[in-house]
Amino acid sequence: MKTKKKSEFAKLPTGDKTLLTIGYVILGLFVLAIIFPIIYIILASFIDPITLQNKGLTFDFQHWTTTAYERVLGNSQIWIGFKNALIYSVLFTIISVVVTLLAAYPMSRMDFKGRGFFNTIFVITMFFGGGLIPTYLLISDLGMLDTIWAILIPGAFSVWNMIIARTYYLGIPRDLQEAAEIDGASEMVYFFKILLPVCTPIIATISMWQFVGMWNSYFDAMIYLNDASKQPLQLVLRAILIQSQPEAGMVSDMQSTAERAQLAELLKYATIIISSLPLMIMYPFFQKYFDNGIMAGAVKG
Amino acid sequence: MAEVQLKNIKKVYPFISGEQKKSKKKKKDEPEKKKSNLQITDEGVVAVQQFSLDIKDKEFIVLVGPSGCGKSTTLRMVAGLEEISGGELIIDGKVMNDVAPKDRDIAMVFQNYALYPHMTVYDNMAFSLKLRHTPKDEIDRKVREAAEILDITQYLERKPKALSGGQRQRVAIGRAIVRAPKVMLMDEPLSNLDAKLRNEMRAEIIKLRQRIDTTFMYVTHDQTEAMTLGDRIVIMKDGYIQQIGTPQEVFNHPSNLFVAGFIGMPVMNFFDAQLEEQNGKYFVDLNGYRVELSEDKEARLKAKGVKSQAITLGVRPDHTDVAKNGVSGVVEVAEMMGSSVHLHVNSNGRDVIIIVPTQDLKESYAIGDTIHFSFNGNVAHVFSKENDKNLEF
């Protein structure tokens, strides 16, 4: 295998070889740029902040500590945050994916009257938003303030995702629908039993985006939710971080201030790990749905 | 099992959507371009017109013609996948113009299989029956029966991607036959298969036809398929029917120059010749080589009152013989085909093909040799120079 690869590379003209090498180098740097911070943060979250500040990363396990995790996970609010984030993310993903896929279907049909009109309406929203204050007022008028709906509904429909789903639908051969039509399938049966099952890659992709987006978001929750019991993980972590910061104007001794600063530093890394760990664990389970070969065998390609 | 009647069927693709209107406007500004096989009228692009055909119960009809002749469009209109712009489609005595495909009791096999990729072969075949709420044991029986006919029983649990092209096409056929439809429509089902597999599947379809009693409508651009499968062949060009007849009829009595050139392999030889009528007898004169037409041809020409005139003469390569006397030509290419040799001869600037069976090969033909060829009066086809029609009909 190795010799085969080598010989293939050797067969290439010099220009291609150079280009390929440059490509690999850039790609390698890019991978490093992603991997290195992750490893750094994981390690840093276990290292005593003073050691980290003075020596950098060390594998002297005497200086390793789990204080940050104990502190963060010991906070009862964090578990509520976890639960809320999970509920919001799952519900938001379901609502968003359902709305997006259903909207994309008529938009993919050339015989849908008013397709151009709806397309224009949708695209306008991609360029112009209502602004923070008007949106807040609207949410307030709709009686959604401090409710879960303020988080779930406003962002549920994504025009961008709709366009992506529509484009994917358009790539599904028309013959499949015609075959289903002759077999006796109604539009609904075709959509749910034929089209959706062959669209799993795009459903998985959109679901992933929406889930991650909701999991990492805190701004909407910060604006619309007041009740501590409704706050998602990101808001709770933010609160923990802020609480640990030495407050300006607070009269305290120098040592206490320094300790708080160190703790804040330590907590910073631990919170990053805690908030992103569930996503990292989830990704491999999603990966099996990113199967490009789903359409293989349907039509002569 | 059903009779199908197509009465003056017409298909026009109208300019309705904004994009088409725009493109139409653009066309107005540009110098007029017209594709030879498309008729563009004020209504839109005409794909099929004046299509009338009565298909008998259990008949196997083949629509054949070059790309863009409207054969697939016609089939899709029968299927209900295309709206019928004009005329009447009657299946089993009922007008079906506005009936949904699922209520027409038809099944269709697509050129590119169109299998459901996420379902097993069994589920692909059972899908239509499930939608019709057929009892489970009956579905199972029908699917297994069809699978056995098509020899795909061992693949029932596989998904389409684990099958070869030929097996996939069998599944597509199986999906169509499980329902025992009134009319079975096939849209170039073999054109995606390689030559060997195509021959095998063609034989399979002939066998299948004997096992399942139904009316077939089959679209192909392959004349061999048309000739071997069809009870009757409909030859189409530019949206019009050129001729309807049994394979023998269209081969022996092509109604016009197009049919004569389209049916038969290698293509019929055409010559500029003269038709002469003398005392009720008809002769063709090809560069001084004079042949009297056969009695039946003469009778038909006489009945039509055909006079002496310049004609296009057509003689099939199989009916053109190398002779001592006749029309002269120079051998340009000699193709050894095994059982025969195809001689490409240049005669007065025209490429003439002569098929010489190997067993009759008395001499070898070298490029540049001058030879003579002749033909009999019963195989000469006479076409009008004015409208390309066969003067006998």
Features:
heterodimer; A: 301 residues; mainly alpha; MetI-like fold; 2 domains; 15 helices; globular; B: 393 residues; alpha+beta; Rossmann fold; OB fold (Dihydrolipoamide Acetyltransferase, E2P); 6-stranded mixed β-sheet; 5-stranded antiparallel β-sheet; 33% strand
Tell me what the structure shows.
Chain A folds into 2 domains: 2-67, no CATH class; 68-295, Orthogonal Bundle (MetI-like fold), CATH 1.10.3720. Chain A is 73% helix and 0% strand. Chain A starts with a helix and ends in a 14-residue tail after the last helix. Chain A has helices at residues 2-11, 14-44, 49-55, 67-74, 76-108, 115-127, 132-141, 149-152, 159-170, 174-183, 187-198, 200-216, 219-224, 233-244, 254-287. In chain A, helix 5 (76-108) packs across helix 9 (159-170) and helix 5 (76-108) crosses helix 14. Chain A is an all-alpha fold. With 393 residues, chain B is α+β, with helices and mostly antiparallel strands. Chain B is 27% helix and 33% strand. In chain B, the strands form 4 sheets. A 6-stranded mixed beta sheet of chain B has the order 7-8-9-4-10-11, sandwiched between helices. Chain B has a 5-stranded antiparallel beta sheet with strand order 2-3-1-5-6, with helices on one face. The longest helix of chain B is centred in the middle third of the chain and has 17 residues, at 195-211. Chain B starts with a strand and ends in a 9-residue tail after the last strand. The interface between A and B is medium-sized, with 25 and 33 residues.
